[in-house]
Amino acid sequence: MKTVITYGTYDLLHQGHINLLRRAKELGDYLIVGVTNDNFDRERGKLNVCNNVLERVEAVKATGLADKIIIEDYLGQKIDDIQRYDVDIFAIGSDWEGQFDYLDEYCEVVYLPRTEGISSTMLREERQKTINVGIVGCGNIARRFVPEAAFVSGIQIAGAYDHDSAVLNGFVKSNSLPCAYPSFEAMLDDIDAVYVATPHLSHYGYCKQALLARKHVLCEIPLALEERQAQELYSLAEEQGIVLMEAHKTAHCPAFNHLMVMIKSGAIGEVVDIEASLSRLLPDKSRREFDPGQAGGSMYESAVYPLLPIFKLLGTEYRELNIYSRMENGVDIYTKGVLRYPNAVCSFKIGLGVKTEGNLVISGTKGYAYVEAPWWKTDYFELRYEDRNKNKKFFYKWDGEGLRYEIHEWMSCIINGRLGSSRLLPKESIAMARAMQQFTERKNFMEI
Ligand code: CTP
Fold first, then answer.
1. pTM > 0.70
2. For ligand 1, what atom is nearest to the CA of residue 36?
3. Ligand 1 centroid from CA 95, angstroms
4. Domain 127-247: which CATH number of 3.40.190.10, 3.60.15.10, 3.40.50.720, 3.40.50.2000
5. Mean pLDDT along residues 371-382
6. Alpha-carbon distance 274 to 362, whole Å?
């Protein structure tokens, strides 16, 4: 018996796939089809796959051509599969010509003719709605947004607005954007969605105006500095049937998400303690980050990062939050927060003028998770146990600035009519604003 193996994503299964599977089947007696897992596709940079792995497996099954279907999870798996299933022929479309020659050490490698004029990419583009996005605020963060958006399909950047016309024109020119809008209102009239990348204190106003105009919003952190404001914005988005997302890049980090899921499924037992730390020493004290008039300081700048794993794993209903800060010229250059839960205690350390270790340690009754700096955009974590033989390391992909993951989720929510993302729930985002408000009001606060 001759065994043939072939691999693919098989998204929006089309005639090209069917022809390829038929040709592969004809090469032998038994056809194994490897279908890529969703995570594996994401790691390979295929962010826009429409069907999930179960749907894709079902579609391949429905062709009746596969004798066995397996899931491709990791790089290097092909060699393992060829050996495990005693494969005689590895077959793949001619678009991969030459790229799998290294497998000829293990079996025969055959490149089959590809069907011209059709591909999943083409079909995705055909069914893809284009969302016109405007950017308000043309500073550093917006500069990173434009190249990252290029990795997400369905998004088109229509133009930008900044109250400083020199900054605006420079930004529009350097990013080759179609339009420098004369006002925020003019931009809103022309777009479907807005990315708010202005300084902190203007987030609430721009978001509210955009939501009232029924435009989807992706707002840079922190969405709001007061609980009531954050609540109001999410309620408004819900009433309007519009997507409002806080641009919390850690919430969309593939490794971080997997860590949360693993811990929630009991990988380290019951969580009893979380320590999260993050610091960025900025020598230039004239920056906005040190200006009390522009909501500078560690708490407004960074608290949303350590609060994310805490709220994700222990919920937003903590009993109390005690805040200890080192203040300098009206801003906290260092803050330590201690949150007490009924059955857990957590702490975070954030600094703009004090350097901290910068790791995330989540301790449970059976083991602990260790994520080294920069855990907030990590591609790696470890689960550690009393018995060191059980320790495990997990590796993922984190491409570029990582903004593509949050932009992708925002677009996916808009296009698929999902009003919110489970990666950052409104109540979690609102609780972050509550913590910042407590700091502003100096409640349970002590200067050190
Ligand atoms: N294939 C083919 N003819 C096509 C499209 C795909 O023979 N017109 C083959 C590929 O060469 C591969 C298999 O089908 O062997 C699965 O390919 P996959 O990457 O899932 O499909 P594409 O349509 O090429 O997807 P994409 O556009 O996302 O690259």
1. yes
2. 20
3. 8
4. 3.40.50.720
5. 95
6. 4
